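Suppose you are handed a protein chain with no further information: no name, no annotation, nothing but its sequence. What can you learn? This example shows the usual starting point.
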Amino acid sequence: MKRRALPTRSTESQVDQTDALEDLCDALCALRGHEEMAAFLRDLCTPAELEAMSDRWRVVAPLTAGMAYRSIHDVSGVSATTIGRVARCLGQGEGGYRVAARRLAAAGHPAFSHALKDGRPANDERH
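A reasonable first move is to predict its three-dimensional structure. Written in structure tokens, the prediction is:
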């Protein structure tokens, strides 16, 4: 994704970025249901951005199931680089993928039926 040139006052820029992210989170939380969320995302994102986000999400379930990167690539067509990025976020990120996967597993979503032990991927060695 493109990054804007940083203004000379980096502290103000960071505050503006934080406020903008918080505003976006507020907008996402205000939406009700799948249709509203899909419409908002289609309005907000380019087709390429939607594809990139969808690719990232698509590999969360197989990663949490312990599937090998190459197998995930063969089944999904998602690049090994993207798969590795998602795997890194699952292990060392902010926890967003794990929260969403855990909630879908709890709701009985079939993609996550194998899923998470203690909020970690089933194949996570750190338990």
